[in-house]
């Protein structure tokens, strides 16, 4: 075989980000066991880190990972089954006899989402576990998404895996009648994968394009699978309208550009049109849900040529509806942003100060901006400092630092 160019660590990381979830999904189908699949894929990537920097990427990195992981898992199971490990013997038999599965869900990753979202697991555990397996998100990233400490999330993941193992929850395609009952958790998983991609919770990059693309792919598959579910279509519209702004959201140097300062000519017109069309379809159905209302809010933004021309009263009315459907502090915080545009920053600040989201950097960033607008510079500086300390994403942190420095232009 001809020599291949050496693979830098960044390329290997890119393969990991792009292929981890699919590889785990395939191996779960092969072995019927989540721990075996995850450990095998991790072993395969460890081997890739040892070989690829000098040998170069293989022609099909994804295929190499899956094949290597499968072979390593079979070798390990053979050793363990010879020691009368019945669990290993069962997994090995499953791998040897692998008939094609029939059913409404044929995509491996989407199928694993549905199987992980089993009703015997708490919704939070379903979502966290699927983010770990499908999104390849770290425990730290998942904890950030749930606004809980990392050790708490680590315990949840261990308990979820243990319950799946002890209850012998089958890894199979759910029956069509079971799909709607699992839909809420499935939609939450897809949306959290998208959110982690759109604003990475840590690292030097604002956006992880691989996760955005994967969430959109899964959203389109769900829309094909369940086109009569308004919330499925609402989530797809929400992601499309949000994704349409991605190019305008980053400066040439990778810095964050807030919505009010974006060049709207850079917004993706095709994604805007597709998202708005789906929102109109949802409105005609008259069965509103949280994702549809969020999509409608983004559709109002996408209609406006500028921030000043935005119909903030309509956005506030939609947030009122969303808060009724989803009465959470994060929704209330986002509503406060609209209140600031309609009723002024003082009214919004009173609402923000009532929310118990002290560990959420976005709250402190919004509070800092409201204080700045009210001329309360010292308090704004302090709030920016708290937001900077809590922000895990470098572009966000850099943006907040610039805002803080703008309070004291002579310093």
UniProtKB/TrEMBL annotation:
Residues 113-163 form the RNA polymerase sigma factor 70 region 4 type domain. InterPro entries: DUF6596, RNA_pol_sigma-70_dom, RNA_pol_sigma70_r2, RNA_pol_sigma70_r4_t2, RNA_pol_sigma_r2, RNA_pol_sigma_r3/r4-like, TPR-like_helical_dom_sf, WH-like_DNA-bd_sf. It comes from the Bacteria. Keywords: Sigma factor, Transcription, Transcription regulation. Residues 17-81 form the RNA polymerase sigma-70 region domain. SUPFAM superfamilies: Sigma2 domain of RNA polymerase sigma factors, Sigma3 and sigma4 domains of RNA polymerase sigma factors, TPR-like. It holds the Pfam family DUF6596. Gene3D superfamilies: 1.10.1740.10, Tetratricopeptide repeat domain (1.25.40.10), Winged helix-like DNA-binding domain superfamily/Winged helix DNA-binding domain (1.10.10.10). Residues 182-281 form the DUF6596 domain. Belongs to the sigma-70 factor family. ECF subfamily. PANTHER family: BLL6612 PROTEIN, BLL6612 PROTEIN-RELATED. This is RNA polymerase sigma factor.
């Amino acid at each position: 075989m001809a020599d291949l160019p050496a693979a830098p660590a960044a390329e290997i990381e890119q393969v990991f980000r792009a292929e981890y979830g699919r590889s785990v999904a395939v191996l779960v189908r092969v072995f019927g066991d989540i721990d075996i699949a995850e450990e095998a894929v991790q072993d395969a990537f460890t081997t890739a880190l040892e070989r690829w920097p000098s040998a170069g990427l293989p022609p099909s990195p994804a295929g190499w990972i899956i094949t290597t992981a499968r072979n390593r898992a079979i070798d390990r199971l053979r050793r363990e089954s010879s020691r009368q490990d019945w669990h290993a013997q069962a997994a090995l038999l499953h791998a040897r006899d692998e008939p094609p599965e029939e059913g409404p869900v044929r995509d491996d990753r989407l199928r694993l989402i549905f199987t992980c979202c089993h009703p015997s697991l708490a919704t939070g555990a379903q979502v966290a576990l699927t983010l770990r397996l499908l999104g390849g998100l770290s425990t730290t990233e998942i904890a950030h998404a749930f606004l809980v400490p990392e050790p708490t999330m680590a315990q949840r993941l261990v308990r979820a895996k243990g319950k799946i193992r002890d209850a012998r929850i089958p890894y199979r395609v759910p029956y069509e009648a079971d799909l709607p009952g699992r839909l809420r958790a499935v939609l939450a998983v897809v949306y959290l994968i998208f959110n982690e991609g759109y604003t990475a919770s840590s690292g030097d990059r604002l956006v992880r394009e691989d996760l955005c693309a994967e969430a959109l792919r899964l959203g389109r598959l769900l829309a094909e699978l369940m086109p009569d579910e308004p919330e499925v279509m609402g989530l797809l519209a929400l992601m499309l309208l949000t994704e349409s702004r991605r190019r305008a959201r980053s400066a040439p140097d990778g810095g964050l550009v807030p919505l009010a300062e974006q060049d709207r000519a850079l917004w993706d017109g095709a994604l805007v049109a597709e998202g708005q069309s789906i929102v109109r379809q949802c409105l005609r159905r008259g069965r509103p849900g949280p994702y549809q209302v969020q999509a409608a809010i983004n559709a109002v933004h996408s209609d406006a040529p500028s921030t000043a021309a935005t119909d903030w009263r309509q956005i506030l009315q939609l947030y009122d509806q969303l808060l009724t459907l989803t009465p959470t502090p994060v929704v209330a915080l986002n509503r406060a942003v609209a209140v600031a545009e309609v009723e002024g920053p003082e009214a919004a600040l009173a609402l923000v100060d009532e929310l118990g989201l002290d560990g959420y950097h976005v709250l402190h960033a919004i509070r800092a901006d409201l204080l700045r607008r009210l001329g309360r510079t010292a308090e704004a500086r302090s709030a920016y400092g708290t937001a900077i300390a809590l922000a895990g994403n470098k572009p966000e942190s850099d943006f907040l630092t610039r805002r803080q420095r703008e309070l004291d232009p002579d310093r």
